[in-house]
Every structure is written in C-alpha cells, then in structure tokens.
C-alpha cells in the first residue's frame, strides 16, 4: 500500500520515510559494460545522426577494402603468372643478326642452336639446366576433332626448367628424345579441345599426318605475363619435331629460337646473365665494338618491377584511405563536440550523482569508438560486397587479404579513439556546477 | 549529536573579470547529523556556493570543511566523486532527470557509478521509488509524470545510495504551492526517520518547514536560529 496515500496524519501520529539500508560495497566506478550500455543508449537516441556520422568512416573503409581487394587480386595474378614461368629463369632470345650492315631485328633469323643450349651448363657452372626451344603453329587432329596449337619442340629438361607438373601420365625421357620417338605431352587446353572429358593418355593424335602417342597431360598454368595461354601447347622432343613436323633447310636444322636457362638456387641472376652474354659474344665471335647478338631476359627482375609497381599502387591507395579516414574522423569529432554541448546538463548530473571525470571520459570515448567502429564494420561489409560486384561485373580478380579486415577494424577503432579523445576530455573536465546550470 | 558538517573560515573567492567575487567569505558552521536546515538569502548571498562545497561539487579557496570528521577541503577529484556517490544525495530545482529513461532507470543512475550489479540496482531503485510513493510509476518516463512526481523520482534517486546528507537546491522552485507542500512533507518524513537535510531556498514559506534556519548575505552567515518547523499537510501524490 502506498504510504503517502493516507489521509493527513492526525496529531501525534507522524509519518516517517525510513532510509534505505546501507549501500553494499560495489567495485566503485563505472564498469565497462555499463559504460558500453550508456554509450549504446546515447547512440540509439540519435540513430540518424549516428548513421550520418559513421558514413564518413563507412565510405573510407569501404573504399579501402574494395581497392585493396582489386589491387591484391591484380598483384596476385601478376605474381602467379610470373611464377608459372618458373623461378631462377633466364630466357635467351636470338636476334640482332646483321647482314651487310643492316640489322634484321631480334629473332628475325635464328642464330641460336641446339648445341649452344647443350654447351651452356658445361661452360657456366652456375647454370643448372638449359633447354633450346622451337615453336611452331600446327594443326592437331584426334578422331573428328581438330585444334590449332603451338608445338613446342624441346629437351626433357624444359619441363623442370619451367616447373611443369603433370595431371596424368609422364614426361618424355632423354632416351625417347635422343631416339626421336613420336611421343607428346599435351597442355590442358589442347586436351580439352581434342578429348573433352576423355583421358588423352595412350591416345594417338596426328600432326601433319604423323601419328603421335600422348604420354602426358600437363597441369594447368593459365596465362603467362604476356597474356598467352601457356596450356595451349603440344610438347615433343626436339629431334622428333625436326624429323617429322618442322623440317628446315640444312643451315637451320639445329637452330632453336629461344633457350630457357635455369640458374642454381642462391646464384646471382645478374652475374649469370653477364656470363651468358660473354658466352654468346665469344661463341658468335662478336668484335668488341659490336652489339650483342642475343638478348637475355631475367624474369625475376620483371616480377620485381611489377611487384614494385603494385606496392606503389597500394601505397597510393593507403594515402587516399588515410585522407578519407581523416575526413570521417573529423566528422566524428564534430558530432561528439555537439553531443557534449547538448548533454552538458546530463554530464553535470552524472558528476553530481558520483561519476568521476574518468567515468565521463570513458563513456564519451566509447561512444566515439562505437560510432567509428559501426562505420568501419559496415564499410568492411560494403567493401567486400563491392569487390565481389567488381569481380562479377568487370571480371577483375579480387582478393581480400584477411589482415586487411583486421587493419580496417583497428583503424576505425583508432580513428574513434583519436578523434573522440578531445571531446571526451572536454566532457570529463566540465565544471559540475556550470554544467548543471547549463541551459 | 555528532557534527556531520563542520566548517571553519570557509571561503570561496573567484575572479570575474577585473573584480574579485567573495562568494563565501569566512563561514563557520556546525550541522549535526539528523538536522533539517534551511539556508536562505538573496541570490548572490553565498547559500548556493555553500551547498556546492558541502556537496563536494566545488572546493573552498580557503578554510576547512569536514564531512563526518573527514577533511575534504583538499580532497582529490576522484575522492570527491566517491563522497558524492556514497554520502551525498542531490535534489535540484529542475529535477535533472534523463528524459529518455524511465523512472526506475533514472533512480538506478547513482548506483551505476557506485559499481553495483544490475540486480541489486533494480531492487534498490524499486524500493526507493516505493518510499517516495511512486511504486506504481516505475516504468514511466519523465514526460509522462507530473512535476511533483518528477521531483519525487529525483528524491528517490537522491536517497537510493543511502546518503548521510540530502542536499536540496530550491526543490520546490519549479512546482506550484500545493505540490511544493507535498514535496516538503516528503522531506519532513525523511527527516523524522533520521535523514540529515540541507535545503537552499529563497522562499520563507519553504524555509519554515525546516527546524533550523541559516541566513546568508554577502558570503557570510547573518542569522542562525532553531525554529519550530511548520507541519506540512500530506496529500496523496
């Protein structure tokens, strides 16, 4: 029954309101869950404002995630395609043949031979393997299917130099190569077009009316850095090709167009490149004032250059992200300052009922962090969605590195802390009396 | 009775522009536990400054202030917050309730800063609201309550931590006469049960409900007398 609802007390019968029992001992001070609850309640009271404030951080983080995803995707593809060529690899291209003072340009006339490739590992100890290669476009036929592809005529070492692996079957052996056996190892694209889902191993395909036995199917590598499909090829021993597919005039019967050179691990690619240059200058008897007759490409260098470009790109993106986060952070700070001013009376009251300045600081700081974190989390989701959309519509590969998400979360929290600190400090240092009287 | 509040040469000076304002200028007072004291005076007389220093919202420029024997004149900011949390309850003229929170949540607030778990807070807040006659209005927000009811919620909030001292700054200033009298009846009922109350007002009719009257002028006490308190007529809230 309501004690105050009684009629006016008669004289001598005075009502009392007894105090509450003494306060149990608490831990003292505002606990983190309570501060969190207060911060959430305050944000919930101004949902639209909170959402608009988070928008700055949201856009910044979403843009970062999407651009990082596109950048990382591009970089991953470049690196994968370069790695697919093989590590520690130098490519020697023939060319620079001069006839009567006229340069015919690189690769116009073969000036590399099968014997050069055989000599390189003997002459240069840092080289592990070398394989001469000739390529030619040819029609391949299996049953009623046919497919135009590149025939690669080379040494068995070529598979190891370019780090090919097999899906099925085996590579051809040195004996098979020396004997000029009619065996081929085919790429995944060729297998698909000639055999569909059938296994090609043991089947016979014809090239220029000559039957070849398929003994191996290469594992798929995809495009090389120049955008060519590396799987669209049929690989056969060099001497088999010379005999059956790529007949050549006597002068070019031992010619190759490129030589793939595998350098031992730990050797300096630059030094070996120089040794190769000297090797060919001697072999081709180039006079001291004449230019080189071959060109040598170091693919690790190409990789490093591309990787460097990707890194620079990432740095630029990080710069753009920092600016958008700065703008977002200033938005958070602005709204927190407004909020402190609006809630001056409430702060005064909280101080009067026993809040310490640090409790007020904690509450407002949490509020700023939550604002930034909400924006950041929504931004991460939007960024992931955007990167999927980019992958789906523009066809660019996107990869979201897990650490990018962690960094995005950490960045939003730090942005909230940094830009929320000044307003929170301002709130905590309010004079309680002035705050209580604030209109 | 033991002195709950003791001040010696209590001064609060501050600079306002070029002028030195002596809001309090040497106040020596002793207030026993269990008293009901009204501080009166025109605005600028120092009565509110006195209340703020006693309530640990402000610190004296000079002099001593002891609350229950503890000297607080030089206490740290955090220690003063703890004293406000554990020993002092405030009632304000404009209620100062959180507008978006219901009565129960408003009364819970001081216990949040005392670090009490939610279950105990809910129990005590409900108990405090019953004591001020609002047991049936716990879920109402301030804008769903009358002025008198809002001030009762504020009083429940002030007593919920079981303070030694209840400080009221013009508690009836925003209420009509009849509602004001109800609030004074509640203060008297709390006082009869042993609560020490210091009330600041400029209305003689309100000061008449106290059993001791202290008059301030220009930062000094100019009158201090014990009086026969007027009996408030209790009305159902």
Overview of the structural elements:
The complex is a heterodimer of chains A (439) and B (237). Chain A has 439 residues and is of the alpha+beta class. Chain A folds into two domains: 31-79 and 308-437, no CATH class; 95-293, no CATH class. Helices cover 51% and strands 17% of the residues of chain A. Chain A has helices at residues 32-45, 47-83, 114-123, 157-161, 174-179, 188-195, 238-244, 269-283, 299-342, 344-352, 357-393, 402-428, 432-437; strands at residues 89-93, 98-99, 102-103, 112-113, 127-142, 145-154, 166-169, 183-186, 204-207, 210-218, 233-237, 255-256, 258-263, 295-298. In chain A, strands 5-6-11-8-10-9 form a six-stranded mixed β-barrel. In chain A, strands 2-3 form a two-stranded antiparallel ribbon. The longest helix of chain A has 44 residues, at 299-342. Chain A is elongated. The model of chain A is unreliable at 1-12 (pLDDT under 50). Chain B has 237 residues and is α/β, with parallel strands linked by helices. Chain B has a single domain (3-226), classed as P-loop containing nucleotide triphosphate hydrolases (Rossmann fold). Chain B is globular.
């Amino acid at each position: 029954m309501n004690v105050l609802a009684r009629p006016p007390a008669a004289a001598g019968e005075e009502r009392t309101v007894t105090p509450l029992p003494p306060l149990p001992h608490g831990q003292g001070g505002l606990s983190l869950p309570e501060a969190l609850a207060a911060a959430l309640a305050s944000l919930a009271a101004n949902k639209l404002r909170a959402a608009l404030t988070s928008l700055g951080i949201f856009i910044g983080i979403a843009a970062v995630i999407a651009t990082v995803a596109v950048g990382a995707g591009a970089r991953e593809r470049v690196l994968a395609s370069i790695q697919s060529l093989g590590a520690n690899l130098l490519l020697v291209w023939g060319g620079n043949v001069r006839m009567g003072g006229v340069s015919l340009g690189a690769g116009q006339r073969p000036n590399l031979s099968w014997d050069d490739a055989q000599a390189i590992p003997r002459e240069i100890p840092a080289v592990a393997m070398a394989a001469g290669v000739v390529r030619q476009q040819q029609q391949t036929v299996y049953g009623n299917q046919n497919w135009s592809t590149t025939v690669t005529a080379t040494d068995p070492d070529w598979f190891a130099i370019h780090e090919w692996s097999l899906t099925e079957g085996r590579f051809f052996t040195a004996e098979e190569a020396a004997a000029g056996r009619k065996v081929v190892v085919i790429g995944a694209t060729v297998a698909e077009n000639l055999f569909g889902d059938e296994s090609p191993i043991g089947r016979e395909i014809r090239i220029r009316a000559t039957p070849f036995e398929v003994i191996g199917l290469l594992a798929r590598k995809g495009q090389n850095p120049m955008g060519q499909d590396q799987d669209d090829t049929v690989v056969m021993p060099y001497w088999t090709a010379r005999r059956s597919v790529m007949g050549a005039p006597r002068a070019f019967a031992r010619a190759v167009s490129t030589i793939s050179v595998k350098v031992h691990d730990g050797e300096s690619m630059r030094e070996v490149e120089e040794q190769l240059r000297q090797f060919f200058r001697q072999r081709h008897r180039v006079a001291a004032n004449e230019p080189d007759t071959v060109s040598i490409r170091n693919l690790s260098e190409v990789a490093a250059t591309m990787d460097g470009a990707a890194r620079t790109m990432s740095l630029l993106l990080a710069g753009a992200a920092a600016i958008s986060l700065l703008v977002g952070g200033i938005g958070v700070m602005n709204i927190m300052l407004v909020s402190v001013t609006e809630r001056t009376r409430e702060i005064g009251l909280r101080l009067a009922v026993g809040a310490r300045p640090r409790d007020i600081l904690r509450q407002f700081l949490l509020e700023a962090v939550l604002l930034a974190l909400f924006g950041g989390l929504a931004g991460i989701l939007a960024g992931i969605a955007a990167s999927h959309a980019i992958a789906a519509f523009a066809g660019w590969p996107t990869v979201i590195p897990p650490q990018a998400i962690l960094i995005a979360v950490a960045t939003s929290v730090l942005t909230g802390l940094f830009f929320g600190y000044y307003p929170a400090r301002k709130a905590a240092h309010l004079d309680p009396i002035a705050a209580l009287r604030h209109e | 009775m033991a002195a709950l509040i003791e001040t010696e040469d209590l001064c609060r000076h501050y600079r306002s522009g070029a002028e030195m304002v002596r809001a309090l200028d040497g106040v020596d007072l002793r207030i026993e536990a269990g008293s009901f004291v009204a501080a009166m005076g025109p605005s600028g007389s120092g009565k509110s400054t006195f209340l703020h220093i006693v309530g640990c919202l402000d610190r004296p420029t000079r002099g001593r202030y002891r609350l229950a024997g503890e000297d607080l004149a030089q206490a740290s900011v955090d220690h003063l917050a703890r004293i406000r949390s554990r020993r002092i309850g405030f009632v304000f003229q404009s209620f100062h309730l959180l507008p978006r929170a219901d009565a129960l949540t408003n009364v819970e607030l001081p216990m949040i800063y005392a670090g009490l778990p939610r279950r105990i807070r809910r129990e005590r807040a409900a108990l405090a609201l019953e004591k001020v006659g609002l047991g049936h209005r716990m879920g109402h927000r301030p804008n769903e309550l009358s002025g008198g009811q809002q001030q009762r919620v504020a009083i429940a909030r002030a007593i919920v931590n079981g303070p030694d001292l209840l400080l009221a700054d013009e508690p009836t200033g925003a209420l009509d006469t009849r509602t004001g009298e109800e609030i004074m009846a509640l203060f008297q009922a709390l006082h009869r049960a042993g609560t020490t109350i210091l009330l600041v007002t400029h209305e003689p009719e309100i000061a008449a409900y106290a059993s001791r009257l202290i008059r301030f002028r220009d930062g000094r006490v100019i009158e201090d007398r014990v009086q026969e308190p007027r009996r408030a007529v209790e009305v159902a809230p």
